[in-house]
Amino acid sequence: MRKLTLLLCAVFLLLISCKKDAVDSTNLKTFQSSINDMASSLNTLQQYKFNEALYILKTFAVDAEGETHELVQLSKLLEGKKVPDIFRMADEVARENGIDWTSTGPPSLGEMNIFEDVTAKESDANDISASALRITTRPTQSDSILGPKALVVVPRLVDGNGKNIEFSGAALETVMEVFSGGNKVYTSKNLMQDNKFYGFTLRFDKLPAEKLQNNSIDITVSVKTSSKTLKMTNVGVKVNPNALLQPQVAVPADPGDTELTDPSLTDPLAQPAPGNTPVASGDPKTTVQRFLNGISTQNLRSAYEASNNPAWGTYEKFSNPTTGFGSVKSVNVKDITTSASNPNSASVSASYDVTDKNGSTSSLNVTFGLKNVNGEWKISSYKIN
Asked: Which of 167, 168, 202, 169 is closest to 188 using CA atoms?
């Protein structure tokens, strides 16, 4: 009897020792087995949060089509990871995607199991009876030079009369896909937990300019409830071409882009010459902003009128589509700073990307010299640093 007891204890200890405390991604069977072993060591509350963390990672940290492929990618992502590692990863992914979820908070996503299909239950918060999905869009992050830099895309679940459905405590997988000319150019995921969901912020600098046709996009949003997936597409949404992601190319050597210094501005802080010149009003960088905005929007007359630079010559030379500023397609301004100023002269530093009409983009750091011309700031020199 004593031998039998010792044998049973040995078997019990062997079983305990075989339990895994880290993810085994050898195959899907070992992956599920290791996840179950890790969950069994947690209390009930921690098990709920552990399953939520896995769901967050499966939904947002991997990019694959189909349930099986998603699980395979997730297993590779988590290979060798332990419970604290998985919680840390889920916290980071939730934060990056703007999801209101933390591993230390109370359970908030319902009963999650990444290894089973989600089916409606009597108390399933994802079992929402909606008839359709509505999408609204509006520009945001407007810039005084470039205009709007992003688009807010807000989906809402509605009933048969088009009225918003009120719900909370859900975890509806919400996917936004952006197309242009029939080609997908961008994808983003999030969780809709209630019908006050703030939506997606689609930054234009995430959209490659060379893949967009007619500066317009089609936005498709799908929301997955327990019983069905609702989908809606807004066609022909216009974007701001000046804020799009431009192809990165080497800065071309251009003999024309050499230092063009006006002898009258050798020292931006020099004392003004005697006379009755009116004091220039406003910040000199406003003139530089107007100049760059004129170049970017092809309002070259406005840009030329913001200058008084002999090196640029006549308006015809300035606006020449081959050798002048007429060759510029867009300007993406990063920073403008007034570095020095006195009543008669000033110096403004600016960094920006210039894209020509052939699609080539150059990053420039430029020092603009300005002088007071009859009470107005005018650009009098242009030096590429």
From this structure: 202
- Identify the sign of the CA torsion 322, 323, 325, 327: positive
Residue closest to 86 by CA, chosen among 114, 67, 117, 110: 114
Write the secondary structure of 41-86 as one string of H (helix), E (strand) and C (coil). Answer: CCCHHHHHHHHHHHHHHHHHCCCCCCHHHHHHHHHHHHCCCCHHHH
Cα distance between the two ends of the chain: 90
Per-residue pLDDT of the chain (385 residues), as tens digits, is 555 455 555 544 444 456 788 998 888 888 888 888 888 888 888 888 888 888 888 888 887 777 788 888 898 889 999 999 999 998 888 888 778 788 888 887 766 777 765 444 556 778 888 889 999 999 988 866 667 888 999 999 998 888 999 988 888 889 899 999 889 999 888 888 888 888 889 998 888 888 888 889 999 999 988 888 899 999 999 998 888 876 654 444 444 444 444 444 444 444 444 555 577 767 888 899 889 988 888 888 888 998 998 888 888 888 888 778 888 888 888 888 888 888 888 899 988 888 887 777 878 888 999 998 888 899 998 888 7
Distance CA 121, CA 125 (A): 9
pTM (2 d.p.): 0.51
d(CA 72, CA 75): 5
**In contact, 260 and 309? CB cutoff 8 Å:** yes
